[in-house]
Amino acid sequence: MAFQLIWSPSAQLDLKDITNFIAEDSHSAAQCFIESFIPGRG
Fold first, then answer.
1. I want to staple 22 with a disulfide (CB 3.0 to 4.6 A). Which of 4, 16, 30, 35 is the partner?
2. What is the pLDDT averaged over residues 16-31?
3. Distance between alpha carbon 18 and the CA centroid of its chain, in Å?
């Protein structure tokens, strides 16, 4: 059974902020983090 995740605008902004925070230390870690939310990856 597949589920569809619907991101609220505030959740999207939170995810962007978290990713930017991670990127301050490591761009590759931030990329891995954000890619973990893409279906079929991670």
1. 30
2. 97
3. 8
